[in-house]
Amino acid sequence: MTTLRAIAYARSGDKGSSANIAVFGRTPANYAWLKQHLTADQVEAWFKPLGVGAVVRYDVPNLEALNFVCRACSPAVAVARCASTPRARRSAGPAGHAGGPAAGRFRSTD
Fold it and tell me: Which of 9, 25, 32, 35 is deepest in the core (most CB within 10 A)?
C-alpha cells in the first residue's frame, strides 16, 4: 500500500476567515486517484477538531490539483493550532503524513 505522501504534495494558506489546502497529484494517474477518493467530507472531518467549518472542494485540472477551501476558520486559531498541536502537525495528513486516525482513509492502492 502507498501513502498519500508518495502520490501527492500540498500547499496551504489563509485569508480572512477561510483557509485553503491545495493537494497536487505527482502524476496524472495520481491526480485521477485523488479526484476519485479525496473528498471535501473527509478533509472536513479531519480538520473539524481544529475548529474548521464547512469544506468545499474545487477541482483544478490544469494543475492536476484539488483545492479545499475551509470556511469559518479563524486565522488566529488556524495559525496557533497548526504551530503548536501534534494533531495539526499531523494534518499534513491529507497531503502526506501517514500517521493519525484518518491515515487509512487516505491511502492509494497503486
Answer: 25
